[in-house]
What we know:
alpha+beta; Jelly Rolls; 4-stranded antiparallel sheet; 10 helices; globular; transcription
Amino acid sequence: MANIVRRAEHWKKYSTPPKTLVNYEEPGWEFQELEYGPGGDWDFVSTKLHIASHLDPLRQRIGPATAPFLLVPPSAAVSAPGDCLAGAWEGMGRSQHILISAGYVATAVGTDVSAETVNRRRFARTREPDRRDQIIRHLLDALSLEIGSGNLSGSLFLQTLVTALIYQVLHISSTAPRILSSAALSPEQLGLVLDMMDSQMSGRPSLNEFASLLGVSVQYFCRAFKVSTGASPHQHMLKRRVDFARTLIETGNMPLSDVALIAGFADQSQMAATFKKLLAVPPSHFRRSGKASA
């Protein structure tokens, strides 16, 4: 199941802390879905790359108390570490936030988080919502949906969405070396990755770990892996989990709940949902067929 926790340290800087609906963490980043009360204010310094999307219209002011409140339609905002954020809101509404550490960004895309690299934006108080607002909202919605459904696709899928968000809000130099679409992992590199996948079958290996193993960026690893296998890392890892679990079911009498944990699923229900998604049959189907053929 998703690593759902309910912490509110970050939001203590708000006069009226919003209600935390969902809080999900992995090393280097944290996703939060919040519900705001009828009004309040904030004043703090951002310590991470902060990407936010308001899902409902509300009135907002930015800066000192003398600034006017303006109606803000659903839109996105981006701030960099070290940015001073102050303002207030009026009206109830929901929002989604992701806080990403500078170290995670550097590992994922090979770019430092700084005033020069972050494409800052404010909510659409004095501008019209645009395509970038929509893209950020769709990516955060995808994170929320995947987390809320129990993270059936695994951590690698979530990390892919986080990396896509990073690319949306950073100024990536057009002079940076491009990755050829035909580039593939060497047989030795692919072997190392597959060995790591198998050795961590019951765990949650990350894209950063795979990329670090090969000494490449996450972006390069994801593209080259797909060229080599025809599938993204998270899709391939899911298939290997299913294949491994199927073998355990067909060749033994281990309880399905134990099979699920050994194969890296959160629980038996997640394993069953993944089997139905990939194979269109439940895990118990292979126990029956295995015994029938014995």
